[in-house]
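Help: read this over?
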Amino acid sequence: MMQNIKSLVEILNGELLLYKDLLDIAVKKTDIIVQGKINELDKITKIEGNIILKLANLEDKRESSLRNFSKEKEITITELCKILPAESEEMKKLQKNLKDVLNKLEQRNSLNKSLINQSLEYINSMIDFISSSLEQDNGMYEATGTFRMVPSSLIDKKV
């Protein structure tokens, strides 16, 4: 029993560290998005993906570990703390820290989502502006100085 508890605590500590890494990345993403550094955003998103894979692996281990405590039904950390009051303080502390980090991560991801949506709206409005300008002129000058008619659907994609 003690080995199962020790293993579960190690898994929860591992998850906490990885979620803290995700939070750090989310904070960096905000700066990268604001500065419009697309290449850096791509790099940091790949790093984020690797961390998420590691988290999925730990999540599987955590669920497997929790099944060792109760074969009849799925058990939560909160329920486990009630069953094992002696070990509950450390697990309650881990649970609280995980909730805090997850709340901060959710807030930061929401901010990043909002910033990306604003950027997309700006890009779409610029595409609309350029498209309407071309339609009004209904043509453009080429390098030779000749005027050429352009199709009205030169740019018809939204980002």
About this structure: The first strand starts at residue 140 and ends at 141. The radius of gyration is 26 Å. The chain has a mean pLDDT of 86. The helical segments are 2-35, 38-67, 77-83, 88-137.
